[in-house]
Write a structure and sequence with these properties.
Strand order of the largest sheet: 3-2-1-7-8-9
Bound molecules: adenosine-5-diphosphoribose
Largest sheet: 6 strands, parallel
Distance between the termini: 9 Å
Radius of gyration: 18 Å
Number of helices: 9
Structural class: alpha/beta
Low-confidence stretches: none
Length: 242
């Protein structure tokens, strides 16, 4: 990888997608055999699906929650490299993840936004409270905050809903010197448009993916390969060890 032209006082924004968690054993969505090849988005990941058949939607997320909490699903070298970058880069490093798993959190990422929500949290549609939730979520489960029953949903952003903390994300993109996209196919907006925002703010742009994403032509630089190889090499290079 050629040296990235960024000054130590410049901020870095990193977008991650399902590809960064693949080598931890979690499915992606659109790769061969991915989640959306097994179930339709319209049946499990929209507000309409939840209104039509809440048990089916809750069951879909129960299975993913159980899978995430299974023995052996751990952060990998790519997650750990981003934590090292946050801790050692002199300016701000912000990780914006599309992933609802907690692997960045478990790795120790501090400055982190889950723009599509979090699988291990529940949201009450009555009082709005967001609570940790590590077990199955039956339809009649009680909200830990207001005790209402039948009002809980996964704290996950569904298709057609607004992702979380967009103002903070756009402000970070407007002020960064480097935007890096890791493990995402660049097919879902608004995340897929972040590279344009960064470029218009004068940031350098880098894609680290298994293969070229839909947004590949928009990136100045790219390295293709598994995240557990490309991300540690990128961080080592930036911190002056590569
Ligand atoms: N290392 C790096 N990249 C990888 C790896 C790997 N080991 N394995 C797969 N990839 C790449 C694939 O090449 C692909 O471009 O990760 C990307 C995964 O793409 P998607 O499955 O589309 O996942 P993502 O881009 O995160 O999806 C975005 O869509 O369905 C919604 O809300 C969901 O957050 C998700 C959003």
């Amino acid at each position: 990888m050629k040296a990235i032209d960024i000054e130590p006082d410049e901020r870095i924004v990193i977008l991650t997608g399902a590809g960064i968690s693949k080598e931890s054993g979690l499915d992606t969505f659109r790769c061969a055999g991915g989640l959306w090849s097994k179930v339709r988005i319209e049946d499990v990941a929209t507000p309409e699906a939840y209104a039509r058949d809440p048990a089916r939607v809750l069951g879909f997320y129960d299975a993913r929650r159980r899978g995430l909490l299974e023995q052996g699903v751990e952060p990998n070298a790519a997650h750990r490299a981003l934590v090292e970058l946050e801790r050692r880069w002199p300016a701000e490093v912000l990780v914006v993840t599309q992933n609802i798993d907690d692997l960045h959190d478990r790795a120790g990422q501090g400055n982190l936004i889950h723009m599509h929500g979090e699988l291990l949290k529940a949201r009450c549609t009555s009082c709005g409270a967001v609570s940790p939730w590590l077990t199955d979520m039956p339809r009649e489960a009680a909200c830990p905050a207001c005790a209402a029953r039948g009002t809980l949903r996964p704290h996950v952003v569904w298709f057609g809903e607004m992702p979380l903390e967009m103002d903070r994300i756009y402000a970070a993109l407007a002020g960064c010197g480097l935007f890096v996209s890791i493990g995402t196919s660049g097919q879902v907006y608004p995340a897929a448009g972040f590279v344009r925002e960064a470029r218009s703010a004068g940031a350098r742009t880098l894609e680290l993916n298994l293969d070229p994403s839909d947004g590949a032509p928009l990136f100045e630089d790219a390295v293709y390969g598994p995240a557990t190889e490309t991300v540690p090499a990128f961080v080592a290079g930036l911190l002056g060890r590569g």
